[in-house]
Amino acid sequence: MSHLPDSGLSLDDLRTRVDEIDARIHTALMERAQAEAGIQAAGRAAGAAPALFQPERDADLMRQMVERHQGDLPLATVEHIWRDLICACTSLQADTAVHLDGSADLIEMLDLARFYFGFSVELVPGSDAADVVGAVTASAGDLGLVALIDRAELPWWRGLSESGALVRARLPFVILDERPADLPALVLAKADSMIDNADIAVYDARWSDLLPGNLMDEGIEVLSFFRSAAGVDALLAISGELTEEDVRAACLAAGAAPEVLRRVGGYAAPIDGNGDPDDTFAAEDEEPQG
Question: Which residues lie closer than 8 Å to 138 by C-beta, 6 or more apart?
């Protein structure tokens, strides 16, 4: 019986070891599904509806996974397995659909949705981002997936509100070189109230004139913007530690305060999976000039 170099074990022994590990993994998966069912049952008993998507908890668990990951197994593979597992467990208890932005490339949207929400969740293509906002607002607990496009075809974020759909996550969450499912997008969902402790806050801002040219210098990222004869609408991202007054002052320092400024959600800061797990991703694109 031949032995493999440096392993000290024969090929048959290694295959037996793999089989044993597979059995332990399968047992752990079944135990996790059972525990998830218990969590959902306890939530229903307390009057809470089952939730497919818990972005704050998901972000914490993903950070822990990135911090402990090592070896040759691609981090994106582990991320996808984990996302598929958690969504498969929770979708058994929650009847939730994910509405897709029809203005983006359908294949890329499907890849992104399946990567993060698995194959157990119903996907519903929409006509455009505004259609997704409306579908999430009208639903009991559905999610929306909207592609992030620098110059939007319409200011769809005007439909976001605390009583309806809000921005709850930004994808991809783990930033990796040459990663699969890398379409930049936002996840929309309802929330009982505005999440005040999000790493990044998202604002609907409107100017009747040009968009200030120095927003990035003030720590403001323009996620998307829409220009019309009436002025410029922009979807802004900025540190969640700042108040609305701070954000308005930052816009003024960048060139002009907006006539309209309202918070429409927030999300956990993406993780740089190529380096230090504690590093967060900062946009490097130049701000669109007015």
Answer: none
Q: Nearest-CA neighbor of 250 among 215, 224, 282?
A: 215
Contact 251, 214 (CB under 8 A): no
* 85 inside domain: yes
pTM above 0.90, yes or no: no
Cα of 259 vs its chain's centroid, Å: 29
Q: What SS3 state is found at 185?
A: strand
Domain-embedded: residue 2: no
Give residue-wise pLDDT tens across range 202-213: 999 999 999 998
DSSP labels, 73-109? S-HHHHHHHHHHHHHHHHHTT---EEEE-TTS-HHHH
Q: Is 214 exposed, middle or buried (0-12, 13-18, 19+ CB in 10 A)?
A: middle
List the one residue out of 283, 268, 266 whose CA is nearest residue 64.
268
Residue with tokens 């620098």: 150
pLDDT band at 281 (very low <50, low <70, confident <90, very high): very low
Q: What distance in Å separates the CA atoms of residue 179 and residue 78, rounded to the nearest whole number?
A: 12
Range of the domain at 155: 24-41+52-272
pLDDT of 268 reads 94
Triad 21, 25, 30: Cα angle to 5°: 150
Tokens of 189: 């969902």
Domains contained in the chain, number: 1
Residue 221 domain-assigned (yes or no): yes
**Residue 249, in any domain of the structure:** yes
